[in-house]
């Protein structure tokens, strides 16, 4: 039996075993906190985004490993960085390669742990 | 087993590697418990360039004279003959909830002082009218926001970092009354003057400019 506990906003839509040898185990995956209120700011090198500064991260995520990706409106990655450790509710992630600011439509944030 | 998360499934899956694998698991396997939080935050980064909607300079030696129609404005340090310039930009097109990332005031120095001076920009504390401002009625100012060394080369741009001021203006925390530009050491016994292009100058590229990058 494989059980995955996903964040409240996630949903398991299908259970498809692709192997005839399905093992057993339990992976309990929970969120350190609600990231919807995280505030994004940027550092620039010329007109390109060189770093993303994230603040208002829930304190329960302090100590987690944060990675960030800046993306186009079609979700294609323009650049990414991390992981860095969340401390004091904030983190700054250098982005590589630097991304043309006019093309940035979203910042995807993932925190693993703590 | 496949866990779907509408907007973040792809990178969530990638992030889980090393902690737990979301996807088809083959036996034998070892799965450890872990914590994962993920979000996709929409942002728009806007770069705007503003030209001054008012500029002028005042003259201590002619305290009731308005100087707002010429193509240059002066900053001078001289005993009883200091001069100060004023610029204002209309920033009302920036959303009040925008987060200002950077703001740079640029003035074109058409005539440099003979010796390098330190020029400062200060927020003005009250509204002023470019067509009526004089040394006698000019507003008081806050402490210097930023300073720059003028150098002695004419025909160069001087820039000041005014990010903090613009953030306050946009948020409405401080009224946008523009800036005063002055010599940080006025009343010099050796008179020094610099001239800057105004918004009346023919070449738009040399007019006072405020470049703002903000996020919404």
Helices and strands of chain A, in order, run as: EEEEEEEEE
Shape of chain B: elongated
Contiguous low-pLDDT stretches of chain B (5 residues minimum) are: 1-32
Largest interface: A-B, 58 and 43 residues
* Helix proportion of chain A: under 10%
Q: What is the N-to-C order of secondary-structure elements of chain B (H for helix, E for strand)?
A: EHEEEEEEEEEHEEE
**What's the number of extended β-strand segments of chain A?**
9
Q: Strand-residue fraction of chain B? A: 35-45%
- State the strand order across the main sheet of chain A: 4-5-8
Oligomer status: heterodimer
Q: Quote the beta fraction of chain A.
A: over 45%
The number of helical elements of chain B comes to: 2
What value does the average pLDDT of chain A take? 83
- Beginning-to-end CA distance, first to last residue of chain A: 26 Å
The assigned structural class of chain A equals mainly beta
Structural class of chain B: mainly beta
Q: Characterize the largest beta sheet of chain A: strand count, sense, and whether it forms a barrel.
A: 3 strands, antiparallel
Instruction: Let me know the largest β-sheet of chain B.
Output: 6 strands, antiparallel
* Low-confidence runs of chain A: 1-19
Looking at the structure, what is the overall shape of chain A?
globular
Describe the model:
- The complex is a heterodimer of chains A (114) and B (216).
- Chain A is built from no helices and nine strands.
- With 114 residues, chain A is mainly β.
- Chain A has a three-stranded antiparallel beta sheet with strand order 4-5-8, with no helix packed on it.
- Chain B has helices spanning 9-16, 163-171, and strands at 2-4, 34-42, 45-51, 54-59, 72-77, 83-88, 99-111, 118-124, 141-149, 156-161, 179-183, 192-197, 209-215.
- In chain B, 8% of the residues lie in helices and 42% in strands.
- Residues 1-32 of chain B have low confidence and may be disordered.
- Chain B contains two helices and 13 strands; from the N terminus they run E-H-E-E-E-E-E-E-E-E-E-H-E-E-E.
- In chain B, the strands form two sheets. In chain B, strands 3, 5, 7, 10, 12 and 13 form a six-stranded antiparallel beta sheet that branches.
- Chains A and B meet through strand 2, strand 3, strand 4, strand 6 and strand 9 of A and strand 1, helix 1, strand 2 and strand 7 of B.
């Amino acid at each position: 039996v494989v059980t995955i506990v996903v964040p409240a906003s996630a949903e398991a839509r299908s259970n498809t075993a692709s192997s005839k040898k399905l093992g057993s185990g339990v992976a309990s995956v929970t969120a350190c906190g609600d990231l919807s209120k995280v505030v994004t700011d940027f550092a620039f090198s010329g007109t390109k985004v060189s770093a993303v500064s994230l603040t208002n991260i829930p304190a329960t995520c302090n100590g987690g490993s944060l990675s960030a990706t800046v993306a186009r409106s079609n979700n294609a990655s323009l650049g990414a960085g991390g992981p860095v450790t969340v401390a004091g509710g904030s983190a700054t992630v250098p982005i590589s390669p630097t991304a043309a600011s006019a093309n940035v439509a979203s910042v995807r944030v993932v925190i693993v742990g703590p | 087993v496949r866990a779907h998360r509408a907007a973040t499934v792809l990178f969530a899956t990638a992030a889980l590697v090393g902690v737990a694998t979301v996807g088809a698991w083959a036996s034998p396997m070892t799965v450890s418990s872990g914590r994962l939080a993920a979000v996709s935050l929409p942002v728009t980064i806007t770069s705007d360039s503003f030209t001054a909607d008012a500029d002028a300079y005042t003259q201590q030696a002619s305290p009731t004279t308005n100087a707002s129609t010429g193509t240059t404005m002066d900053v001078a340090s001289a005993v009883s003959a200091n001069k100060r310039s004023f610029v204002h930009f209309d920033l009302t097109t920036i959303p009040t909830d925008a987060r200002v990332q950077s703001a740079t005031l640029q003035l074109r120095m058409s005539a440099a002082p003979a010796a390098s001076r330190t020029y400062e920009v200060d927020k003005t504390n009250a509204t002023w009218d470019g067509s009526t401002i004089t040394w006698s009625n000019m507003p008081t100012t806050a402490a210097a926001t930023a300073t720059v060394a003028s150098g002695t080369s004419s025909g160069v741009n001087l820039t000041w970092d005014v990010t903090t001021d613009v953030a306050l203006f946009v948020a409405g925390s401080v009224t946008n009354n523009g800036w005063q530009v002055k010599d940080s050491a006025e009343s010099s016994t050796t008179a020094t003057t610099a001239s800057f292009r105004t918004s009346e100058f023919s070449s738009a590229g040399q007019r006072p400019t405020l470049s703002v990058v903000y996020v919404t």
